[in-house]
Amino acid sequence: MHQIAAEIPPQLFVENAPFLFEQKLPQRPGKPFTGSADQCKPLRISLSERFIGHEFSSRGARVQRQQTLRCTIVRRYANCAMIQIHALPAFNDNYIWLLQDLSSQQCAVVDPGDAKPVLGWLAEHPDYRLTDILITHHHNDHVGGVAELKQATQARVLGPAAETIPARDIALVDHDRLTVLGLEFVVHAVPGHTLGHIAFYHEDATTPLLFSGDTLFAAGCGRLFEGTPEQMHDSLERLAKLPDSTLIYCAHEYTLSNLRFAQAVEPDNQDIAQRLAEVTRWRSENRISLPSNLALEKRTNPFLRTRETSVKEKADERSGGQNTSQSAVVASLRAWKDKF
């Protein structure tokens, strides 16, 4: 039986995530725990609108908020330790995702286009060590901070083999597996935005995670800077086959503009209307709209809905002719969105 010793915080702070997940905690939160995974009990936390920004004890009772963390708590199977995922804003609308392992005091980042937000976080958390830097593609707003972070921390840099990535230690190709902070990720090749773009997927029975870079956005997809509509369609179809519960951590806060476009494509889609109203409120309160989840994307993202008659008809109308394939629908929608 696997033995562990971990310090688990007595409360979890959750904000701005419209989904449910389960987390296992030790029987006595807040105290050093030595035991097996079998001694952990499940905790279900509702992240509905009325609970956002409040603190929950391990018994599920709501108490007065003391601070706010933009994070998702996910389960590590082996030892009940916890990972927090933070959004570090960069530039105008980028997010650098930081994974924080509370038990080992190590962390990892995804697509650090700027070193300053990461170095700032590390300065505020001097007990933590940056161990890994994950890169989805070569654009500067995703790799601009890599060299400085590598020099400052000696973190391992992992990125796509088909692209030039600064200070890369490990070149990744489709289906590669890697372990980061005890979590196993599978590499998915998802060309379209760039030719060598990859995504990182962590399979979990309760909370699968996808770091999708600039391929799949909340309610949208990336521009076709290098790839073809056929490649983007195939990449999106591949990601759409992941479990509906998959949490999607994309790299930009584009959700509001994407939903406005989605509503133009499907003006009668009530799921889009509801999501647009919700995200409009969130952004007016300066709250982030991520992560999304795949089930929600299938209902509200036009680039995942190319089979829908209403989407194809609108694409045909915009292109002035019949789109004879789903990739042609993607091409029509993407050309429209580029000028929207």
From TrEMBL:
Q: How is the cofactor bound?
A: Binds 2 Zn(2+) ions per subunit.
Q: Which intervals carry biased composition (Basic and acidic residues)?
A: 305-319
Class of enzymatic activity (EC top level): hydrolase
Q: What is its EC number?
A: 3.1.2.6
- Identify the metabolic or biological route this protein is part of: Secondary metabolite metabolism; methylglyoxal degradation; (R)-lactate from methylglyoxal: step 2/2
Region (Disordered) residue ranges read 305-328
Keywords attached to this entry:
Hydrolase, Metal-binding, Zinc
Task: Give the reaction(s) catalysed.
Answer: an S-(2-hydroxyacyl)glutathione + H2O = a 2-hydroxy carboxylate + glutathione + H(+)
A molecular function GO annotation: metal ion binding
Needed co-factor(s): Zn(2+)
Q: Which SMART domains does the entry mention?
A: Lactamase_B
Q: Does the keyword DNA repair apply?
A: no
Where on this chain does Zn(2+) 1 bind? 137, 139, 193, 214
What the entry lists under InterPro entries is as follows: Clx_II_MBL (IPR035680), Glyoxalase_II_hydrolase (IPR050110), HAGH_C (IPR032282), Hydroxyacylglutathione_Hdrlase (IPR017782), Metallo-B-lactamas (IPR001279), RibonucZ/Hydroxyglut_hydro (IPR036866)
* Biological process terms in GO annotation: methylglyoxal catabolic process to D-lactate via S-lactoyl-glutathione
To which protein family does this belong?
Belongs to the metallo-beta-lactamase superfamily. Glyoxalase II family.
The protein's matches in HAMAP family, at most eight in alphabetical order, are given as: Glyoxalase_2 (MF_01374)
Q: What does this protein do?
A: Thiolesterase that catalyzes the hydrolysis of S-D-lactoyl-glutathione to form glutathione and D-lactic acid.
The molecule here is called Hydroxyacylglutathione hydrolase
UniProt source species: Pseudomonas amygdali pv. ulmi
